[in-house]
Specification:
This protein is of the alpha/beta class. The chain contains eleven helices and eleven strands.
Length: about 325
């Protein structure tokens, strides 16, 4: 069993956090410090886009056309910040060998969040959202190659953040006017774009919802799914059970992002109970990766977030005991 975080952390000191993630979790990750300008997950993802330019408007990111040469000042600043973070990763990761995770916003959440040049979300236009996904996939491939070059001993893992995909599938994303909803996307369509990202590295899809579309993720080739265990309903657990039996790794969010840091046994209990109720092989429970319930950007302080990452290994010990019982 192992531990990791899901990306975002509080504060603005990337060096402090790079040291922390290399010490506190078994799968270190490139921290996202959303409190910094251009440090949030959407800005970081816009930074890796190729062939598409974007700028930051009061309502959020908007595409402005094609070609890196026309990148806006905002996009160039986002890229500069990402480069600085990679410089720190290279410095602190010198000599590191093992898994290393990087996160980007997935193509469906990005399409539901970013606007077309003439308004409304990219999600509204089949061709535009495919162009966006392809530009993102190309940029992610280059990003992963850069990480591998800077940390040669790393086995890079890609995390796609898809909090918006359940709304996309349900046709629940509002139009720009607010009077309507964008047309729903079917499962095969969702699989098609997600599958652009799963060939170059082991890929974990993260979605904190009561019923994350696990089957979509696995059909797209995801090797892992990251969920908030406290939110899952029975139908979601049935899909997770099928995925686990097929060899998919469960990234189980067991530590809440706010409130008191939980007792390890209480935190582990929901996973252990459901595992037994579903009749899953106890040995497979040892393959679970334990995480916070979601990103830690909302934690009240860096010290609090570090405490939540620290308790993960204690939870792993409890789950290991349960698996052997």
């Amino acid at each position: 069993m192992s531990t990791t975080g899901l990306g975002s952390v509080p504060g603005d000191d990337i060096r402090e956090w790079m040291r922390a993630v290399l010490e506190l979790v078994d799968i270190p990750f490139l921290p996202e410090l959303a409190a910094r300008p251009y440090g949030d997950m959407l800005s970081r993802t816009v930074a890796v886009l190729t062939e598409l330019a974007a700028d930051l408007q009061p309502v959020g990111w908007r595409l402005t056309g094609g070609g890196d040469a026309r990148a806006s000042l905002d996009q160039r600043r986002a890229r500069a910040l990402l480069k600085e973070d990679l410089d720190v990763l290279e410095e602190y990761g010198d000599g590191y060998e093992g898994p290393l995770k990087v996160q980007v916003t997935g193509p469906w959440t990005l399409a539901a969040a970013i606007e077309r040049p003439r308004g409304d979300k990219v999600l509204a236009d089949y061709g535009a959202r495919r162009d966006l996904a392809q530009a993102l996939a190309d940029g992610v491939q280059q990003h992963l190659a850069e990480v591998r070059k800077r940390v040669p001993g790393a086995d890079v893992v890609l995390q796609l953040d898809e909090p918006g995909l359940p709304a996309v599938l349900a046709g629940a994303v509002p139009t720009a006017s607010g009077w309507g909803k964008h047309r729903s996307v079917d499962g095969p369509g969702a699989v098609e774009l997600l599958s652009l990202f799963t060939a170059d590295a082991p890929t974990v899809v993260h979605c904190c919802a009561a019923r994350p579309p696990i089957e979509v993720f696995t059909k797209a080739g995801a090797s892992g799914v990251a969920v908030d265990v406290s939110l899952l309903n029975t139908a979601a657990w049935d899909q997770i059970a099928a995925a686990v039996e097929a060899g998919t790794t469960l990234y189980a969010g067991l530590v809440p992002t706010t409130g008191a840091v939980p007792d390890p046994r209480k935190a582990a209990a929901p996973l252990v109970r459901r595992w037994r109720e579903l009749g899953l092989d106890p040995e497979r429970m040892k393959d679970v990766v334990v995480t916070p319930a979601c990103g830690l950007a909302a934690a009240p302080s860096p010290a609090d977030a570090r405490a939540r990452l620290t308790v993960l290994r204690d939870i792993v010990d409890v789950i290991g005991e349960a698996a052997d019982a």
